[in-house]
Amino acid sequence: MHPALQGVMTIAIGVIGCVGYFYFSNLFLDKVLFPAKGANAGRNINRANQIRPWLFLFPAFFALSLYLAYPVFETLRLSLTERLPGNRYEFVGLENYTKMFAEPKFWESMRNNMLWLFVVPAASTGFGLLAAQLTDRISWGNIAKSLIFMPMAISLVGASVIWKLVYDARPAGTEQIGILNAVYIFFSGGEPQTWLTIPFWNNFFLMAVLIWIQTGFAMVILSAALRGIPEETVEAAIVDGANPFQIFFKIKVPQIRNTILVVWTTITIAVLKVFDIVFAMTNGQWETQVLANYMFDKLFRANDWGMGSAAAMIIMLLVTPILVWNVRNARREMR
Fold this sequence. Notes:
The chain is mostly helical. It is 75% helix and 2% strand.
């Protein structure tokens, strides 16, 4: 069967299945379980109305349990076991974590992840805020926003391929197709550099890809927040003699502080899970390893399910507090 036809059939079956579930479950609830007739009609209607929300929520709870809760508990179980020949498992407790913490490659991954956490959310949010403010002040701002947001439509692997060409290095004396080397040679007259093999600095070259993508996301969210600022506060500041910088940093930014924090934490979560960029551009070589790539290497290259699952649990533990804070902050704003 053609993949396109298979996809259409899957969507159709899913939609029909959902409609059928809600229709027949309601029918069963109202006609069989709690029929609205007889001496207990009023009580049955109240009971049906109490159960109906849970009936509607059941598919979502089931899907979350199947695709979220079960994988988490299974990953935790695997992180505490060792896989033996014959597809058998032996409980080893925290041994996988101990071995992982003793590996220099794990601490390299942690160090690089922390470096990404310091740089990418700050740079993406800062550039996004700057773009949101400046594009609102020019006549062709909507076109500029479209161009800045466009990288969000590119997959991380596609963006990595584009930037790998930007960093490309050809032998000295040949024409350079990498933009960075062409500019570097033009201004310095030096030899072409293999940018992605330079320890420490190559991490920043990789970060540029994610910053390029996430700046558009930050710009869109922060632009909407800036437009929601009451004009009266800005006008009052102008009357008091505030200059544009004072208006921006002392009037506008404090009023959208919560939105900035939400954007910051959302990008932070993306950074903690970063995998595609490093995998496609350096494959974790030249001291660019991050946690997700370390987990991939252990699971699918070394076939060490225990240490790979332990690395996955570390990523989850790092992401969870940020997710919880984000949800609590969103609920507080809604109240």
